[in-house]
Design a protein that fits this description.
The protein contains seven helices and six strands. By secondary structure, the protein is of the alpha/beta class. Helix 3 crosses helix 4 and helix 4 crosses helix 6. The C terminus is likely disordered.
């Protein structure tokens, strides 16, 4: 098993911490990992992205140009990285922050209401965890328990009180994908098939 993903958005949206959390969780499960962050000098409000590779075997290079999955939190990042998802790959995007939806038809595309769900959980900063939960539901490369343990390493001690709401966001993200899948299955049923 080897998965290569890129997470991209504005600085301050939790892009780098989402990638770091995946990397720590992978290490906790004994997997080989790389985490390569990239951000502009302005950081908060500027563009930021990170590349994460998780594998059961040694990783030959952390530098890649094509990805299995893109998790994107803003329009400029979608515009920049959509073309780099491998055919048959996955794209998860935060619905509220994207004006022009992805256009590719050779990958699976998942629109996630991350901001809306985070606000319902009364913390806008956990939007990234909603998307991560959605991703892990469809690509269970790591256990949710490992993600929670990793958050204890990634978040500073003064923010450990937020771990339980982050866990709720992960679970809610997984629920959203399951609900969308059920609704899609119902929409595939025709009147003829019911008769």
């Amino acid at each position: 098993m080897k998965t290569e993903l890129i997470i991209a958005g504005f600085g301050g949206q939790g892009v780098l911490s989402m990638g770091m959390t995946l990397a720590y969780a992978g290490m906790l499960e004994g997997k080989e990992v790389t985490w390569m962050p990239s951000y502009g000098p302005e950081m908060r409000g500027g563009t930021a992205y990170c590349v994460v590779i998780i594998s059961n075997e040694r990783i030959s290079s952390p530098i890649i140009n094509r990805f299995d999955t893109l998790i994107v939190l803003n329009q400029p990042s979608l515009d920049k990285f959509e073309k780099d998802v491998k055919t048959g790959g996955s794209l998860f995007y935060e619905n509220n922050n994207i004006i022009n939806s992805p256009t590719r038809d050779d990958i699976s595309i998942h629109s996630i209401l991350g901001v809306k769900e985070a606000l319902q959980l009364k913390n806008a900063k956990i939007m990234n965890m909603v998307l991560l939960g959605s991703y892990l539901e469809l690509h269970p490369i790591l256990e949710i328990d490992s993600i929670i343990k990793a958050l204890k390493k990634v978040l500073p001690k003064r923010r450990h009180n937020l771990i339980s709401v982050n866990e709720k966001a992960l679970i809610r993200g997984a629920d959203l994908v399951r609900l969308n899948s059920i609704q899609s299955n119902f929409s595939d049923i025709t009147v003829d098939s019911l008769i």
